[in-house]
Structure to design on (100 residues):
């Protein structure tokens, strides 16, 4: 199996039981899935994009984690995703959006 270079984890606030609910979901995080997937395809970034349960940093949401770099981003917006992907293509993080 060919593994992707990157794994994007978009918090969508899933709970153990029941539907997605919580800060990241309410902030529209689910819409980031398609956006990141399309941007990665356009940029030639080999990635899988998926959602997660609550990552327990709700106060800093919406949250996006980029692996294998272990970059945890907070306050994610579509504009910030563009910056995050720009930086990733340069092998960097956008330090100001990283969750401390
Ligand atoms: S709902 Fe996203 S970190 Fe908790």
């Amino acid at each position: 199996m060919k593994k992707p270079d990157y794994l994007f984890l978009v918090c969508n606030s899933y709970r153990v039981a029941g539907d997605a609910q919580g800060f990241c979901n309410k902030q529209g995080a689910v819409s980031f899935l398609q956006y990141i997937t399309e941007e990665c395809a356009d940029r030639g970034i080999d990635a899988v994009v998926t959602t997660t349960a609550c990552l327990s940093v709700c106060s800093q949401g919406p949250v996006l984690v980029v692996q294998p770099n272990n970059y945890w981003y907070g306050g994610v917006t579509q504009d910030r995703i563009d910056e995050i992907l720009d930086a990733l293509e340069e092998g960097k993080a956008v330090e100001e959006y990283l969750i401390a």
The chain has one domain: 6-97. The mean pLDDT is 93.
